[in-house]
Amino acid sequence: MKTTPYLYLFTLLTMAACKKTPEGISPAYRELTEAVYASGNVYPRQEYTVTAEATGLIQQRLVNEGDSVRPRQLLFVLESTTESARQQAAAAVLRQSQANLNANSPVLAELDAQVRNARTRLSNDSLNYARFRELYAQNATSRAELERAELAYTLARNTLRAQQNTLQRSRNQLRVEVANNRSQLVTSEVAGQNTRVRSFVDGKVYEVYKDPGELVRPGDALALVGSGRRLYAQLAVDESDFGRVRVGQSVTLKADAYPDKTFNARITKTYPKLNRTDQSFRVDAEFVGNNPDAYYGLTVEANIIIRQRPRVLTIPKAYVVGMDSVWVEQNGQKQKIRFQKGTENFDLVEVRGGLTEQTKVVVSDE
């Protein structure tokens, strides 16, 4: 994209001079304001893509392109048998895990019985070990018999401890399973609620991508929504001019959709990343005063005001032929000549050489 610094004139005289007249015109000195040219598009603030968060068929589409919407307004209704089935399955799994945690559950009852059996065996082996110690003290049994009784007591004690740990670990694991299954149920319930898609902003529907009867999955785009009142211009400024642009500078914009209107804006943000495709930088401008209608992507041309120039020789842009030529009248004859062109704006071209205030520029015969 090739752009040059532009000039913008703020007088009614300039507007009148921009019209072609059969009699022709002469270059004139005028007070101009130097500006940087930019082009871009108009977009809404708070723009976002409405996406599906559940799998299902679109049962209802409650908005169309151009409709105004409010926050929390219902946009789409999905019919999802899958989410209902998942919710029922999650509820069944939660009930089963809660039953397993119950004191009378088969899982815990079996472990509890093993603990009781281990405790009984420990009691018996403890008594037996005590009896063999008394017998050994009375030299009524051998050392080997005492050690066997001691080993049996030790094993019984360790077995009880292990069974108790297993029972406690199982209870803890079942509690975790209950918590996880409850979370899964809540998630499935939320997913079921996601079959009702609502707006997040007070704005306007710019595009609808899906119709009733279509199958959608999580992440599928349903519509494009954005603010219907807060608009901004996203402009592209040539890298050779970007260094002259500052936040707060005034901007004048024109759009083909409004041939007789000019809009005012102000630079609110500049982006430091170069777009290598067209060698431009992005600049955002907020409208000041009147906004254009909320047409998404409306094409605009802009002049970013840099400084005023009190005396510049100019001709109307409409008289320029090609890049740098005009038709002039000399001695009653028309001829095409080239001139040294400077910067230009929507309506005027700066004359740096080749034409004077006495030159009569006429309408092209081409």
Helix content, binned percent: 25-40%
The CATH class assignment of the largest domain is Mainly Beta
Measured on Cα atoms, how large is the radius of gyration?
Answer: 42 Å
Give the overall shape.
Answer: elongated
* Count of strand segments: 20
Please tell me the total number of domains.
3
What is the CATH H-level superfamily of the largest domain?
Answer: Efflux pump adaptor protein, beta barrel domain
* Number of distinct helices: 5
- CATH-defined architecture of the largest domain: Beta Barrel
End-to-end distance, in Å?
A: 28 Å
Strand content: 35-45%
Order of helices and strands: EHEEEEEHHHEEEEEHEEEEEEEEE
Class of secondary structure makeup: alpha+beta
Mean of residue pLDDT values: 85
Order of strands across the widest beta sheet? 2-11-14-13-12-15
Biggest sheet features: 6 strands, antiparallel, barrel
CATH fold-level assignment of the largest domain: Elongation Factor Tu (Ef-tu), domain 3
GO molecular function, one term: efflux transmembrane transporter activity
Coiled coil: 146-177
Domain CusB-like beta-barrel: 234-287
Keywords: Coiled coil
